[in-house]
Write a structure and sequence with these properties.
- This is (wild Malaysian banana) hypothetical protein.
- GO terms for molecular function: S-adenosylmethionine-dependent methyltransferase activity.
- The chain has helices at residues 54-63, 82-85, 111-114, 126-139, 177-182, 222-232, 254-257, 261-275; strands spanning 11-13, 30-31, 37-38, 149-155, 169-174, 188-191, 207-213, 233-243, 246-248, 282-285, 297-302.
- By secondary structure, it is of the alpha/beta class.
- The chain has one domain: Vaccinia Virus protein VP39 (Rossmann fold, 3-Layer(aba) Sandwich).
- It has a seven-stranded mixed β-sheet with strand order 6-5-4-7-8-11-10. A two-stranded antiparallel sheet has the order 1-9. Strands 2-3 form a two-stranded antiparallel ribbon.
- The model is unreliable at 1-11, 14-29, 32-52 and 59-75 (pLDDT under 50).
């Protein structure tokens, strides 16, 4: 949710943890308008944290004590972001690996109270915003394309879309009406708490692109939301989940606040996988100045087309 920065007591960076990474792979690719992939120009700086990996815990939970890890133990590729490697060659657990308590929050008061006052601020710094806007400019349908519909989930007074970007229909769904009214890119808006009602008010197969900026960590019913995303997307439609390492920690789910950046990419990838009907998710590190400004990550996927076999 887009919302000068909020008080440090509310908006905190999540702590990185040591990550067990998959087999080395080339830098992740960006989606193109026709669904093909193009290689990124330059690898990002390698980041490693400290502590036990959440993914190792998932692997043991899913396979039993002594079972093989679902995340390969090979050395990460030097110079390539762990976030970009984490969804390469994933072997997913057979069942959804998270427990109900993983989606608890420190503050379980109604979200409508927390978001009742408008916050005309941004949650990531300017370089991260520019990186996200540039990414959008590369993957969005051309401006003023006939029949194109975009939906910005957990929207606010700014969506970080390219300057002057227009479509016949760009819908923002968020929690604060005053913020949504100020968003210049929206053609319409809907005030809705997805943690209370995850049903998206759109017909099947009607949306070309869904975006969500630094808010996936607040979803307490993510599989319900991602199933709805899959339902409303057109075949081949694109869903882009972007996030950083900053959040309102009292409202972020516990599995997010207790894990690091690469784990977050795996978690979002799991949402796509277990919702069903999506292509294998891809993680991209678009951080503009690693170590000097806010990091910025994207996990994206497309809705499977009718001629694609279901993923196992």
């Amino acid at each position: 949710m887009a919302s000068a920065s909020p008080p440090a007591s509310l908006l905190l960076r999540t702590r990185p943890r040591r990550l067990s990474l998959p087999h080395p792979a080339a830098a992740a690719a960006r989606p193109t308008l026709d669904g093909s992939q193009g290689l990124r120009r330059a690898p990002r700086r390698l980041f490693l944290g400290i502590g036990a990996s959440f993914l190792d815990q998932v692997a043991h939970m899913a396979s039993g004590s002594g079972g093989r890890s679902f995340v390969a133990s090979a050395r990460p590729q030097r110079g390539v972001s762990p976030v970009e490697q984490i969804l390469k060659n994933v072997v997913w657990p057979e069942t959804f690996p998270f427990k109900d308590e993983d989606f608890n929050r420190f503050d379980e008061s109604p979200d409508s109270l927390f978001y009742s006052e408008p916050r005309f601020v941004t949650h990531i710094d300017d370089p991260a915003i520019r990186a996200l806007t540039e990414y959008y400019s590369e993957v969005f349908p051309p401006s003023n394309s006939s029949g194109v519909c975009l939906v910005d989930l957990c929207s606010s007074w700014v969506s970080h879309y390219p300057a002057g970007y227009r479509q016949d229909r760009i819908v923002g769904m968020g929690m604060n009406e005053e913020e949504l009214k100020r968003n210049p890119v929206l053609t319409e808006y809907i005030v809705q708490d997805l943690n209370v009602n995850p049903k998206l008010p759109f017909e099947d197969n009607t949306v070309d692109v869904i975006t969500n900026v630094v808010s996936v960590d607040y979803l307490t019913k993510p599989i319900d939301v991602f199933k709805e995303m899959q339902r409303i997307l057109k075949p081949g439609g694109l869903a882009i989940m972007s996030f950083s390492n900053r959040c309102f920690w009292t409202k972020a789910i516990s599995i997010w606040t207790s894990t690091g950046d690469a784990d977050h990419a795996w978690i979002v990838g799991a949402y796509f996988h277990y919702a069903g009907g999506f292509e294998p998710p891809v993680a991209v590190d678009i951080s503009p100045n690693p170590g000097r400004s806010d990091p910025m990550y994207v996990v994206y996927s497309r809705k499977q087309t009718a001629d694609q076999p279901p993923l196992l």
